[in-house]
Amino acid sequence: MNEEKNKPVFVPDDEPEVKDLPTDQMVLQLGPSHPAVHGIVKLTTTVEGETVKDMDAEIGYLHRGFEKMCEQRTWNQNVVFTDRLNYCSAPINNFAYCSTIEQFMGLELPERAVWIRMIFSELSRVADHLTAVTASAMELGGFTHYFYYIHARELLYRIFEKYCGARLTTSMARVGGQPWDLYEGFEADVREKMAEIRQYLEDGHMLVTRNRIFHDRLRGTGVLSKEDAISFGITGPRLRCTGVDYDVRKAMPYWFYDKVEFHVPVLDEGDNYAAYLVRMDEIEQSLWLVEQCLEKIPSEGPVMVEDNKIALPKKSDTYNHIEGLIHHFKVTMEGVQVPAGEYYFAVESPNGEHGYYIVSDGTGTPYRVRARPTCLPQTAAMPTMCIGGMIADIVPTFGSINMIGGELER
After folding, report:
1. pLDDT tens-digit profile of 232-272?
2. CA 149, CA 384: separation in Å to the nearest integer?
3. What is the pTM of this model?
4. I want to staple 297 with a disulfide (CB 3.0 to 4.6 A). Which of 59, 115, 186, 368 is the partner?
5. Cα–Cα distance for residue pair 278/261, rounded to 1 Å
6. Residue in 379, 401, 352, 339 with CA at minimum distance from that of residue 62
């Protein structure tokens, strides 16, 4: 009798198991006004319980008109628009755009200018990967990790600022080379900052790489197969973590990347954790590349082509000679005269192959400029990576594609 008295009355003997209970599907609107999708992407998600059954990734909340605006301004004036694409690594956008025009025109840049572009490209890659990794960790609750890596990124932004006067939107290139040479003490400054960054990387590894929560949230989530990644046209770390060894710097070497040593990190798992590890390894490779560039760069020399129809003349020539004044006026007001035709050139940006397809009608203004956004294919693949997973898996998966709104919706 005592056993019957103590038996919970609210648990019937014939209660079915939870897995047999019927559940209804529900549509969740994740975004666009949501921090997990960075404010401009809407994920229309169908869920059954906590399981994602269907998803539709909708963009179109931050159209900037970059490509159309390029048709109204001169070739050099468009450099400021490229800053606003992937603003976490603006110098790479600047260099890729200017290099497209230079390759089309057959310009040979001074050696020192090319090494400068490589140095700042790799520093930008480090800054971008630091941002992608730590923002994803913060969205999973790892706030301390964020302070470590954002401070490491701040060290790089200080170098950018000392070089060109800007931190985020740098406008660091011009058609024909670099508008400025390196400042005095640049090499010592960079080596000092890289030593500090390596310490922050070590601290960050101890905080999250083997952290049980971080590991379990990323391992086995957001899985993308090699075949799907290729089908979507994905490049960069999100492709290399599926086992595809493709890097523009190796596949189609540009600048002086064939004169330096580095390896391309490749993993096979294809999940969010593999993407994280690839990015962390690429940071180390970029730091190593910067050290090699500092050793190989000439100690002096020009950083801009010596052609006054392309580069602005020196101020002394502009102020004291009529020829210099005329060249200055024509380059500024009419722009660099690019021969008629079309051309495509791409670089390896932090998110993958970032290229520009330009069409010229022979004037100082582009007829058409088309940018290849690296994060568009990855955003399109979000349903493939999320369907079958849990609602909570959407957050680290979206973080792993490193969506940048300015580039996604040009």
Report:
1. 999 999 999 999 999 999 999 999 999 999 999 999 999 99
2. 30
3. 0.90
4. 115
5. 18
6. 379
